[in-house]
Structures are given as structure tokens and as C-alpha cells.
Amino acid sequence: MAHPTLHDWHELESFRRRHHIDPDRIRRMQYALYQSHEPVERALERLGSKAETAASELDLAPLQIVARIDSQLDLSTKFVLSTWDAQRIETVVLCAPSGRAAVCVSTQVGCRAGCTFCATARMGLRRNLTAAEIVEQVLVAARDLARRQRRLRNVVFMGMGEPLDNEYELHAALRCLQAETACRIPPRRLSVSTVGVPAAMLRLVEQFPGIQVALSLHSARQEVRQRLIPWARRADLAELHQALQQISTRPKTHRHQGPVMIEYIMIAGVTDTDEDARALAGFLRGLDVHINLIPYNQVPGIECWQPTDRARRDEFAEHLRGAGIFTTIRYSMGADIRAACGQLAQTS
User: Fold this and answer.
1) 69 shares a domain with 52
2) Sign of torsion, CA 8 129 153 39?
3) CA 37, 38, 43 angle in degrees (round to 5)?
4) Is 45 assigned a catalytic role?
5) Residues 112 and 198 in one domain
6) pLDDT (tens digit per residue) in 137-194
7) Known catalytic residue at 95
8) Which of 19, 42, 57 is where one domain is finished?
9) Could you tell me if residue 4 is inside a domain?
């Protein structure tokens, strides 16, 4: 079994009381760990004579870096990380030329949503990640960026796994990432993606106002969506629309609360037809949403689909814009290192 980690606040408080450590020392250690992005051994020095005790009783690194792979096409980096039970997960750091940086974190080892275009789905679900393992991915990224004189800006829960299928640990991780005593990341810079779990989506926006919700819709035709996402049988488009409506009409209690992001994969002849465009525009009409059109990234061994070509993609986007829907065309990063959307999987 894994030992308690520095990110397990209840265990850390229990450790502090047990060894009569001044709370101020704990705060200084947390600042060094979460804000200064110091190596954990150096952060522990703030505990004085109790540093060695902490090292023996707490797991200082819930994840170990197995590999760091840099893209030759763009400013993305993939980390292959190992858990205490020798599972492998992947985390991606995305750097824009402007200097802004984001980390795409995983929430599960594998996934049971079964998306037919995604490499992670082929693993099945092996286990949920703990909140500490989720937070540690953010710290791995932040330390790496600090060494490059960059600062982490955004955290997106779009890696391996369905975040809302690991709701308890997701919420615990979000609390740590936002906490003043930890990462201090504003809610507007946290994005949680889901294939669509309506009740959990509503709980998320209720408990974490201002956070960005992203729905991986991928089709507004139920039969096509079920082919792409087997989990779509659990919540049909009518249920998803109702959830989006409730989220869209919530009082803007947070000044940075924005529209729901809609993720839509562009697969030639599957999701990009005129019928698809009409169905999508009709489904989203009247909702406070921003749609991202995402290129399909091919995965070896998965259905022989092709990405939509540029001309058809642009035509599709214009149809949506003509219907009054805010539409952005996204470009994949990290495709050469299998770090793009749909390409993450356990590396042996």
C-alpha cells in the first residue's frame, strides 16, 4: 500500500500533532513546495529536526519520473510517470510561444468510457488516481517549467481517464490546487473535461464556482455519439442538454465564470458532414458555450479514420459561427510524441 503523502492534509496535520511541529513550519514547507517549486527534500528543510522523521513516515514523491519526452514539432513535453504500484500514467506540459504554459493531467490509470478514437480506452480502467497523485503531476510540471524560467498558468484535466468517474479524488485535488496554503491556482485557470456525467457536472459547478467545464461532445447525433463514446448510452443528448442549460443559466456568482467549453473531434465522413453541422448548431443554440473543433489524431490499431481536411473544417466552423456559436479551431500539440488528444496510454 502507498504511504500517506505530503499532499494528504489530514495525514499531514496528524503527523504535525504527533511530532509537536510548529504550524508555521508546516506553512513554510508548503510554500516552498507549492509556490517556490523547490525539490521536496529542500522544502522539508523547513521542518528543521523533524525533516528526517517526515521522510521516513510520509511518501515524499507519490510519482516517479520514468521518462521525459520533448516534441520536435512544438513546445510540448510528455512525462511518463510511475505510481507506487508500478502503474504508468502520462502527463503533458504545453507551452505556447507567448510564454503561457499549461499541464494536462490524468485522473485514472486507463479509462472505462471506451471512446473508440482514444488510446487510453484500450487499457480499460485499472484504478483511480489519488488526489495526491493528481496534484503531484501539477508539481512535476511546475518544477520543470521553473527550470526553464516559465511559470505554470493553467491546469486541464484532459489526460488519461474520465475525471468525473473519479469524483471524490478529483474534488480533493481541486481543493488543494486552489487552496491558499497550496497551489493558489484561480478557478478560472482550472478546466475539467468530461464525456458527460450530468449529475456530477452539476455538483462540480456547485462546489467549485468559476471553474471551467469542458464537455467532450464529439457528435450531436445520438447514434454517432454512441459509436464514438459507448458511455453515451448512460446519458443521452437530452439529458446533457438539460445539464448544459442548468449550468448556462446559473447566476454568475464568480466574476470569471465563463461559458461551457464544447470539445468536438473532426473525423472525415463521421462527424463533419452537413447533417453533423446542422445537428450541432441546433443542439447548442441558446446555450452559453464556446466550441473547440479538434483534429482527429490517429492512433495505431484503432479504426482507420482520417482527420477532416482544412477546407471542410473551415466550412464546418463557418456554419457554426453563422448560427451565432463562438467557435475556435484548435491545433494539436505533441502529435510526434503521442501526446496529443486521444493518444495517451500506459507506456511499458
Assistant:
1) no
2) positive
3) 120
4) no
5) yes
6) 999 999 999 999 999 999 999 999 999 999 999 999 999 999 998 999 999 999 999 9
7) no
8) 57
9) no
For 150, residues 6+ apart whose C-beta sits below 8 A from its C-beta are 95, 99, 101
The active-site residue out of 38, 90, 136, 169 is 90
Name the one residue in this structure whose C-alpha cell is 453541422. 277
**Stretches in the chain below the pLDDT threshold 50:** 255
Q: Are residues 40 and 130 in the same domain?
A: no
**Interatomic CA distance for residues 288 and 220, integer angstroms:** 16
- Residue 208 located in a structural domain: yes
Grid cell, residue 123, equals 487499457
Q: Which of 95, 104, 115, 341 is catalytic?
A: 341
Residues 230 and 119 in one domain: yes
**Is 123 found in the same domain as 17?**
no
208/82 Cα distance (integer angstroms): 29
Task: Look up cell 506540459; give the residue.
Answer: 93
Q: What is the pLDDT of residues 194-209, one digit of tens each?
A: 999 999 999 999 999 9
Decide: pTM greater than 0.70. Answer: yes
Q: What domain count does the chain have?
A: 2
